[in-house]
Amino acid sequence: MAPAAPRFKVAIVDDHERSRAALRAAIWAAGGEVSVEVTRRADALAAVTKAAPDVAVIAVGLADGDGVEAAAEIIEKARCPVVLFTSRTKDDLVHRAREAGVIAFLLKPLRAAEVAPTLEIAIARFRESAKLAQALEERKVIERAKGLLMSRLGLSEDDAFRRLRRAAMDGRRPMVEVAQALLVSESLAQGEPARK
After folding, report:
1. What is the CATH number of the domain that holds 35?
2. Which domain range does residue 14 map to?
3. Helix (H, G, I), strand (E, B), or coil: what is residue 196?
4. pLDDT tens-digit profile of 151-165?
5. Contact yes or no for 44/13 (Cβ under 8 A)
6. Can you list the pairs that 146-150 forms with residues at least 24 positions away whose Cβ atoms lie under 8 Å?
7. Which of 32, 109, 121, 177 has the fewest CB atoms in 10 Å of its CB?
8. In angstroms, rounded to a whole number, what is the distance separating the alpha carbons of residues 154 and 120?
């Protein structure tokens, strides 16, 4: 029988061995897996990108840099949700963390019972946010294609939308793909680079 998949895969970025050990034990006890441990901020992005965990837990204070800055970089470039691990929750830290895109906090001293729910909620919220951002981007592409049809063919907004929808149904493709193809073909005809 094959071993069960871990509940979640976690990257730990913390330069204190005791903190890492407590986190590691709590993650394993919750059925998770530690995919990578890093002690330096300078190594964090590369390690998290390579390990591709479900979530990263990052200590606020790192010997070689700021954990909030590391979190912002990992969220943006590795597309990974981050939970900050800290003993303090002053307003300025919470504000900086929110601006960086941090999903949640785990407080020191660690209470093992809080680890699984905190990580699972962080993972779920990050995925929901990513889906919403993707849906918004797709909607913008469809709106641009609809506007192109309206101006080129003199269609109403409803007629342009129906035409895109019909083309998507006939081709058995998502409407956003049809809209992208239309925008690419228009940009080629105009000799301009296509925008997504």
Report:
1. 3.40.50.2300
2. 9-110
3. coil
4. 999 999 999 999 999
5. yes
6. 146/179, 148/182, 148/183, 148/186, 149/182
7. 109
8. 50
